[in-house]
Amino acid sequence: SQAEWEQLLTNCSAFLFYGMERFISHTILNRLVAMSIPKCHLMILLDLVRSKQSYQRITNSSIHKSCKHIAIERPTETVMLLSLAGVRSIIANQWYTTLQGNAERLDAVSENLLHVGRTTGQTVRLLQR
């Protein structure tokens, strides 16, 4: 529920979203824009996985949204909104990907941040290669 999302986001120092489609499609945009999330130091968004079913779901839900609303749901705009809400550092997919691709990214991020002890910048740089 939206209340659970809000509670998780406002009370965490790090947040990992690993899911299908766009992170923003799982929240109510107006509520997200009004949130204050200064305690969240790192947000990792491993989303943008698209299947035939998810593509159809996005297409159907987009019919009821304005062009401006759809534009705000793009990856760069999502990161800007989260940054304005107070999230300090965000690692996010920029393009659509496969389930396998996201699983590999999650492994690499987890390994480098938690096990090896690299910084977020070093970890992102490794992902870009």
Automatic annotation (TrEMBL):
Any single GO BP term: cilium movement involved in cell motility
> Domain of life of the organism in this record?
Eukaryota
Quote the InterPro entries the UniProt record gives: CFAP46
Q: What is this protein called?
A: CFA46 protein
Q: Specify the species.
A: Ceyx cyanopectus (Indigo-banded kingfisher)
Report the gene name. Cfap46
